[in-house]
Amino acid sequence: MASSTLPRPRGIIRSSIALASTLALAAVLTACGSDDGGDSAGDSGSGDDSGLTTVSSGTLTVCSDVPYPPFEDFDDTSESGFKGFDIDIVQAIADGLELELAVKDSSFDALQSGQALNANQCDIAASAMTITEERQAALDFSDGYYDSQQSLLVAEDSDIASIDDLDGVKVGVQQGTTGKVYAEENATGAELVSFPSDAEMFQAIKAGQVEALLQDLPVNINHQDQGGFSVVETYSTDESYGLAMKKGNTALVDAVNEQLSEMRDDGTYDEIYNSYFATE
Amino acid sequence: MALKRSTRRTLSRAVLYAVLLGVLLLVGLSADWATIRANFFAPAGIGNPFTGDWGTWPDLLTVGVKNSLIYTAVAFGAGLVLGVVLALMRLSPVAAYRWIATAYIEFFRGLPVLLVVLVMAFGIPIAFNGWTPPGGTVGAGVVGLILVAAAYMAETIRAGIQAVPKGQTEAARSLGMSAGRTTITVVLPQAFRIVIPPLTNEFVLLIKDTALLFVIGFAADQRELTTIARDFMASSETAGTATSLIQASILYLLITLPLTRLVSWLERKQQKAR
Predict the structure, then answer these.
(1) Nearest Cα to B61, choosing from B194, B232, B181?
(2) Which one of A43, B64, B71, B91 is least enclosed by Cβ atoms within 10 Å?
């Protein structure tokens, strides 16, 4: 048997297996390197004179940390699959720019740090995000579209009545939020506990892991409505939510601001605002 | 001392059972059952199949379980291919290949999977001019899983290859088979039979690791099981309760328990065959 095969040098086959392996690896790596993304990617100025360049052509891709009612939530019945104040705002902007709206659920930390935008996951981050100086170092913001207030939520039978009562108290805050920063600066002596999102925070206060939650007012009001908890204090911060875009994408920032001011002029903004925050 | 040995044994058993019962009773009595029911078993989420109300199960199943399994399958398949390549490199007579494979394996086994997933999801598009793997961010996250899974599987497969008796190779070579043909037709098939149980374990680990993808961006219909369960804590009819976490746990167990049983069955079978 095997009498017909020529004698082969022993090392060759083995080395060719090894070589093939390397080539396969190299192929994978070069495939990674190939620039499918085209010019939509890369350098900071992704807009050009002719119009808007978006990460997915014809579509306005919006990243948001869903769910965060009433600002963003899931909704099978809506076209984008999402609903909420932020979603309605960006839907109106997309309509105005004649783009389709696509929403992606992301972690808030990735949004406020600019990672998601830099990684070209989306064109806009719309996630109840307060405009702050720190964030402006990594992101470009639209004009403010919602005046934000912070608030303190405690159990109905709690002794805590204000931010001055938080000495030695465990207070739940969300990682990367202005609520956390506000608590760090104003809740003297409080022991801050960070959570990835509001879902975990609300479970924590129910489980008695923390005694209070310091975060955006509408979200705490939502919990108050669910029963057992009440908002004892609100804090004006002179801050407002902005839509965040990749640093240097001025074309998109201008286009978004134009849409926002149009919405304020023609009453669309008030309509959306009242459908979520009307106070009768 | 006067007790008979068998009486003593019965008595000590009775004491052990009494202790167990006492502990269970204590836990049962101190637990807040009303709250447990409201928080972990909210009727709105559990539903009532008799009335045609399936609660939040359909979303968890059709989106969550489906995607978790898809991500696991992709990560496992690609990880296996890469793992075989790494294992062969590790056994290569060329020193440079061994070094590269060893460095790769040590590197990815030494890092938390969560960290690899994060770096991949935000690193790949920035590193490669905005290019993302198929599936976008999710694809990048799955690449993270692949890289780590391949490192673990490479070691398993290497052990499997080395467990094939040397006589098999020697016999094949003395029949005139080339080294490459011996590897592919004689050694690898036997190695794979040996490593099926540990590879199935790796599959189970991967199913659970897909939960780590929650840190990256998902479209609504791309979410895996844990992400959906977390989202339902703040959204849907079970908002404010942890019912969805229990539901997701049940679904994970429905997938993983049969697999782990399968692994121990395979292991027993292999033991007998020896």
Answers:
(1) B232
(2) A43
Test A110 with B215 for CB contact under 8 angstroms.
yes
- Look at B223 and A105 and tell me if their CB atoms are within 8 Å: yes
Task: Give me the DSSP letters along A140-182.
Answer: EE-S--EEEEEEEEEETT-S--SGGG-TT-EEEEETT-HHHHH
Q: Calculate the CA A275 to chain-centre distance.
A: 22
Question: Looking at this predicted complex, what is its ipTM?
Answer: 0.73
What the block records as the tokens of B45 is: 């989420």
Contact B89 A21 (CB under 8 A): yes
What is the full per-residue pLDDT of chain A (280 aa) written as tens digits?
A: 444 444 444 555 555 555 555 555 555 444 443 333 333 333 333 443 436 889 888 999 999 999 998 999 998 888 888 999 999 999 999 999 999 999 998 888 889 999 899 888 899 999 999 999 999 999 999 999 999 899 999 999 999 999 999 999 999 999 889 999 999 999 999 999 999 889 899 999 988 889 999 999 999 998 998 889 999 999 998 889 999 999 999 999 999 999 999 999 999 999 999 999 876 4
Q: Is there a common fold for A59-147+239-278 and A149-238? A: yes
Give chain A positions within 8 Å (CB) of B93.
11, 14-15, 18
CB contact under 8 A, B136 and A121: yes
B138: burial class by Cβ within 10 Å (0-12, 13-18, 19+)? Answer: buried
CATH 3.20.20.150 fits A59-147+239-278, yes or no: no
The pTM (predicted TM-score) of the whole model is 0.78
Model confidence over A175-211: pLDDT tens digits? 889 999 999 999 999 999 999 889 899 999 988 889 9
Nearest CA in chain B to A118: B126
**Residues of chain A with C-beta less than 8 angstroms from the C-beta of B123:** 119
- Residue range A149-238, CATH number: 3.40.190.10
Cβ–Cβ contacts within 10 Å for residue B82, how many? 22
pLDDT digits (tens, 9 = 90+) for B111-125: 999 999 988 888 887
Q: Is 1.20.1600.10 the CATH classification of the domain at B56-272?
A: no
Please report where in the chains the tokens 């799955």 appear, as a residue: B142
Q: What angle (nearest 5°) sits at the alpha carbon of residue B75, between those of residues A38 and A40?
A: 10
Chain B nearest C-alpha distance from A37 (Å): 5
**DSSP string of chain B?**
--S-HHHHHHHHHHHHHHHHHHHHHHHHHHS-HHHHHHHHS-HHHH-BGGGTB-TTHHHIIIIIIHHHHHHHHHHHHHHHHHHHHHHHHHT-SSHHHHHHHHHHHHHHHSS-HHHHHHHHHHHHHHHTTT---TTHHHHHHHHHHHHHHHHHHHHHHHHHHHHS-HHHHHHHHHTT--HHHIIIIIIHHHHHHHHHHHHHHHHHHHHHHGGGGGGS-B-GGG--HHHHHHHHTTSSTTTTS-HHHHHHHHHHHHHHHHHHHHHHHHHHHHHHH-
d(CA B194, nearest CA chain A) in Å? 22
